[in-house]
């Protein structure tokens, strides 16, 4: 199988499936093939239509970018008003999908690599970004966190948003993400809490009533509670810096930060500097 890589507008192929490479290197895999198939089906949706099926994610993305920018400004003393404050920083987005977050990070000056276990998602991301000169620092790769970690790659900032609820081994996944963060670097995660409220809103409401995503996209038993994620991060050598909730406002279709983490939440963790 071939993996596809796009760097500075050039497409190359790398042989070997990401699952084969990560399995040989780690003896385990976080890839849930059924989940990958489901998410690959979503690549056929109008991902880049802000008024299409992915409208809620388009509305959420500016909040996610703002959260990363605020935390990194605090951590690194970045110029808060600079048009490209991420210049000089190397980003990795694991489970990048068709590239909503990665394109935003690249436009802010970051050198960004987007990785996804779904080849269909990567192809959609490549197609959308191709030929855009403002995205010359953006690259895509069909692969996994475990595969990159096995290669010894490390980044200033690693993000994985709305992904951990789709993997089959959260602890291995967090360990792999931690290994990809440079000492002193940052890790950003977002996911859905495992509560009755999240079942009502994220599954019954979003999938079956509002039809935002296809039924079966989420499995409630795979949602991760903040305390559980905190333990996994601690075991992986990461320090939890901040946790915040994200709430959807149905009356205007926007998202807002909140102290309520019972459904959607974002967190920021850092890796200590090497001793």
UniProtKB/TrEMBL annotation:
The reaction(s) this protein catalyses: a 3,4-dihydroxy-5-(all-trans-polyprenyl)benzoate + S-adenosyl-L-methionine = a 4-hydroxy-3-methoxy-5-(all-trans-polyprenyl)benzoate + S-adenosyl-L-homocysteine + H(+); a 3-demethylubiquinol + S-adenosyl-L-methionine = a ubiquinol + S-adenosyl-L-homocysteine + H(+); a 3-demethylubiquinone + S-adenosyl-L-methionine = a ubiquinone + S-adenosyl-L-homocysteine
Binding residue positions for Mg(2+): 162, 165-166
InterPro entries in the cross-refs: SAM-dependent_MTases_sf, UbiG_MeTrfase
Lipid bilayer topology: Peripheral membrane protein
Annotated EC: 2.1.1.64, 2.1.1.-, 2.1.1.114
Subcellular locations according to the entry: Mitochondrion inner membrane
Enzyme class: transferase
Binding site for S-adenosyl-L-methionine: 64, 95, 116, 161
Domain of life: Eukaryota
Gene Ontology biological-process annotations: methylation
Pfam families with a match to the protein in the record: Methyltransf_23
Function: O-methyltransferase required for two non-consecutive steps during ubiquinone biosynthesis. Catalyzes the 2 O-methylation of 3,4-dihydroxy-5-(all-trans-polyprenyl)benzoic acid into 4-hydroxy-3-methoxy-5-(all-trans-polyprenyl)benzoic acid. Also catalyzes the last step of ubiquinone biosynthesis by mediating methylation of 3-demethylubiquinone into ubiquinone. Also able to mediate the methylation of 3-demethylubiquinol into ubiquinol.
Pathway: Cofactor biosynthesis; ubiquinone biosynthesis
Family (UniProt): Belongs to the class I-like SAM-binding methyltransferase superfamily. UbiG/COQ3 family.
Name this protein carries in UniProt: Ubiquinone biosynthesis O-methyltransferase, mitochondrial
One Gene Ontology term, aspect cellular component: extrinsic component of mitochondrial inner membrane
Keyword set, alphabetical order: Magnesium, Membrane, Metal-binding, Methyltransferase, Mitochondrion, Mitochondrion inner membrane, S-adenosyl-L-methionine, Transferase, Ubiquinone, Ubiquinone biosynthesis
Gene Ontology MF, one: metal ion binding
Listed CDD domains: AdoMet_MTases
Required cofactor(s): Mg(2+)
Subunit structure: Component of a multi-subunit COQ enzyme complex.
